[in-house]
Design a protein that fits this description.
It is built from eleven helices and twelve strands. The protein is 52% helix and 19% strand. It is an alpha+beta fold. It folds into four domains: 1-121, no CATH class; 122-210, Beta-Lactamase; 212-287; 295-437, Histidine kinase-like ATPase, C-terminal domain (Heat Shock Protein 90). Mean pLDDT is 78; it is low at 434-438. The two termini are 77 Å apart. The strands form three sheets. Strands 2-1-5-4-3 form a five-stranded antiparallel sheet. A five-stranded mixed sheet has the order 7-9-10-12-11, with helices on one face. A two-stranded antiparallel ribbon has the order 6-8. α2 packs parallel to α3 and α9 (329-347) runs antiparallel to α10. It has helices at residues 3-28, 33-73, 88-121, 140-146, 158-161, 208-249, 258-287, 299-307, 329-347, 396-406, 434-437; strands spanning 125-130, 135-138, 172-178, 183-195, 198-207, 295-298, 315-318, 324-327, 353-360, 363-370, 410-415, 422-429. It is elongated. It is an enzyme of class 2 (transferase). InterPro entries: HATPase_C_sf, HATPase_dom, His_kinase_dom, PAS, PAS-like_dom_sf, Sig_transdc_His_kin-like_C. Keywords: Kinase, Membrane, Transferase, Transmembrane, Transmembrane helix.
Length: 438
């Protein structure tokens, strides 16, 4: 029997003891009426006192227990009960429950704070709607997108906010939309939510136009930096030579060798102007690359023929399995010629160049490996007009990557791990085999 129940039973028996003793005495002893009534009165008084004592012992701990439960119900987890009373086990359990609830509330508040900070730091606009499509949560980016105070937005319907169309249709899509705070192209994603057994909608809006504009701005900065460098390299000597020729022409009388100086100066101006023209022509080549005209290309035959176009160093062709790709052979040849030319330039005069191909999962790799010093430590290898070679155009790798990406492929240039040198990898989608089609 539990301790509390045992103490209640013993206390009840003790409270009834005076009445039992008086009844027993009256039954066994022939007392007079006066003495008999005196005993009955004393028994009644003693019983009442013991009942009051038992009442306090039972009710007051229950009051304490009720107070602790009331505090928990109102979210006050700081109260604790004394564990040594008649309800010690129950008080212990309630104290443990209060401590656990207090710990969970602390975790919840920390998680809510972290969530709030995360939402505030996001550039994406986040909206949460309830099952009636009324706004219940938004972050600062969403507030800026709607261009309104937070208290004017909460509780309003999606239709009132102009977002009803975004809660319908596909769950992920790109669209052009005009918000009160911004217009442009947006990536819109939504998903269902449930809270307290009720449905809701999470809506996330990303301004992809701003990201693209930022990337475009950076691309223009890189392009203008390279163009400015190349143009200045041509215009600086032209300007200097023009000033020299103007000074020479102002002399009276002209020197005896003025014709020779004039011819040399004009030749230099013409040479630099021609170099600038070639540079701009290379840029036009990048801008006007036509779309590929793919057809079946047998790599085992085509790459062997391609390797024979390089005469400065022998290109070793490491034969692989017979593979066929769908590609524009003219454009793909131009890309690989650029990779082979770079490999040979790096390997001269005593190095070697190897060309091989292989299948890797769902794509086909064409690898050009050289014994040169390896690629330079820079992230600008594929930036247009960037070059580390004297007299280089800086469009070879850029053009090769543009051709590969037009074929849904790509190019990487990394340092070899087994020896000095570079490894250029051009990959293309794998053409389905006959067994795959079956």
């Amino acid at each position: 029997m539990p301790r509390f129940e045992r103490r209640v039973l013993l206390g009840s028996l003790l409270a009834a003891m005076p009445a039992l003793l008086v009844a027993l005495a009256l039954a066994l002893t022939p007392w007079g009426d006066s003495l008999r009534w005196a005993c009955v009165g004393a028994a009644i008084i003693a019983t009442l006192l013991l009942v009051r004592w038992q009442y306090r012992r039972v009710v007051f701990p229950l009051y304490t227990l009720s107070g602790l439960l009331e505090a928990l119900r109102h979210g006050d987890y700081s109260l604790r009960g004394v564990q040594g009373g008649v309800l010690g086990d129950a008080i212990y359990d309630i104290n443990a429950l209060a401590e656990r609830l207090q710990h969970e509330r602390l975790q919840f508040e920390e998680s809510s704070y972290l969530l709030g900070k995360t939402l505030a730091a996001l550039d994406s606009a986040v909206f949460v709607f309830d099952e009636q499509h009324r706004l219940r949560l938004l972050n600062p980016a969403a507030q800026r997108l709607l261009d309104a105070k937070r208290h004017r937005l909460f509780g309003r319907s999606a239709a009132e906010l102009g977002l009803a169309s975004l809660l319908e249709g596909p769950s992920a899509r790109l669209l052009t939309h005009a918000f009160p705070g911004r217009s442009g192209r947006f990536d819109v994603r939504r998903t269902g939510l449930r809270s307290d057994g009720r449905g809701g909608q999470l809506l996330v809006v990303n301004d992809v136009g701003r990201v693209l504009r930022e990337e475009e701005r950076l691309a223009w900065q890189r392009l203008l930096r390279v163009l400015g460098h190349e143009v200045n390299n041509s215009l600086a000597p032209i300007q200097s030579m023009a000033g020299t020729l103007a000074t020479l022409a102002s002399r009276e009388p002209l020197p005896d060798d003025w014709r020779e100086d004039f011819c040399g100066g004009l030749e230099l101006i013409g040479h630099r102007a021609e170099a600038l023209t070639r540079f701009l022509a290379r840029y036009s080549t990048l801008a006007r690359l036509p779309p590929p005209q793919p057809r079946a290309v047998d790599l085992s035959v085509w790459l062997v023929r391609l390797a024979k176009l390089e005469h400065r160093l022998p290109v070793i062709v490491e034969a692989g399995e017979p593979l066929t790709v769908d590609a524009d052979p003219d454009q793909l040849e131009q890309a690989l010629i650029n990779l082979l030319r770079n490999a040979v330039d790096a390997s001269l005069p005593d190095g070697g160049v190897r060309l091989r191909w292989r299948r890797q999962a769902e794509r086909i790799l064409i690898e050009v490996e050289d014994d040169g010093p390896g690629p330079p430590p820079t992230d600008n290898l594929f930036v247009p007009f960037f070059t580390t070679k004297p007299g280089g155009s800086g469009i070879g790798l850029t053009l090769a990557r543009q051709i590969a990406e037009a074929h849904d492929g790509g190019i990487t240039l990394i340092a070899r791990k087994d020896a000095p040198g570079a490894l250029a990898q051009l990959w293309l989608p794998s053409r389905p085999s006959a067994t795959d089609e079956d």
